[in-house]
Design brief:
Helices cover about 60% and strands about 5% of the residues. It is mostly helical. A hairpin with a 2-residue loop joins strand 1 and strand 2.
Length: about 260
């Protein structure tokens, strides 16, 4: 039979802006209020995942789950939702990552050390990524890929008056990225795929922020931090076994 709950009245016609929207391919579309409410609900679900990671006995496995799995839990939404709408979720998500990290190292992690941990291994961090920096990169990368496959739509969108909301959001994100590279343009990124573009922009962001992060430390600490500032060092540390589950026993080594 007919399900009246599936009918949503537009807010301009007396409907509720909080319920005006839908979930399409895992992403939320609709009013700002609707999207923000769903994003906040997503944060509550992620808290349960973070709590489960803390229950794992092995510290190494905990770190693998944090860095390789949990770390990417908001990436899809970052690609499909503008950074300003993502901010409530990203703020909570960073708190979750910090909570798990402190559980792993069994010590308090202050703000500067948490920022350093979000750098790549080759930049002296441990690869936990900065969710807010990545959100801007992911959103621009996703839109660049979409318009690369639909160039006619991009041309049409350019002449729309008033400007389309999506182009305004892209423009705002590009202004953030241009603070890191003044020569960067959205059109120049359209030719690359989303994954490649996001990696490039993320690397750009980390390199732009690294000096400011490292300069918060004492001189002796800087010496240690900078000793890991090397691509080869980062590559080696990324490849070495991170869990006893993947280590080679002495007996196996002797038989090689």
């Amino acid at each position: 039979g007919f399900d009246g709950s599936r009918v949503h009245i537009h807010p301009d016609n007396g409907g509720s802006s909080l319920s005006y929207g839908a979930k399409l391919l895992g992403s939320f579309i609709g009013s700002d209020e609707f999207i923000r409410s769903k994003i906040i609900a997503k944060a509550e679900k992620l808290k349960k995942v973070a709590s489960n990671i803390k229950k794992v006995d092995s510290k190494q496995v905990q770190f693998l789950l944090l860095g390789q799995c949990f770390n990417m839990k908001v990436n899809y939404h970052s690609r499909t939702t503008s950074p300003d709408r993502m901010l409530p979720l990203l703020t909570e998500f960073d708190k979750m990552k910090l909570d798990v990290l402190e559980d792993i190292v069994e010590a308090d992690v202050d703000e500067k050390r948490f920022l350093l941990s979000q750098m790549s291994v080759s930049l002296s961090g441990i690869g936990l990524r900065n969710s807010k920096w990545d959100s801007v990169c992911a959103f621009v990368a996703s839109n660049a890929e979409f318009y690369s496959e639909n160039p006619d739509l991009y041309e049409q969108a350019q002449v729309q008056e008033p400007p389309l909301l999506c182009l305004q959001q892209i423009s705002t994100s590009m202004e953030v990225l241009k603070q890191r590279d003044a020569n960067l343009t959205f059109v120049s990124k359209i030719k690359d795929g989303a994954c490649k573009t996001q990696r490039q922009l993320s690397s750009l962001s980390m390199n732009a922020h690294r000096d400011a992060v490292v300069n918060q430390f004492e001189e002796k600490e800087k010496v240690i931090i900078n000793s890991f500032f090397d691509d080869d060092c980062g590559r080696w540390l990324s490849m070495c076994p991170k869990s006893y589950l993947f280590s080679i026993s002495d007996a196996s080594r002797k038989n090689r």
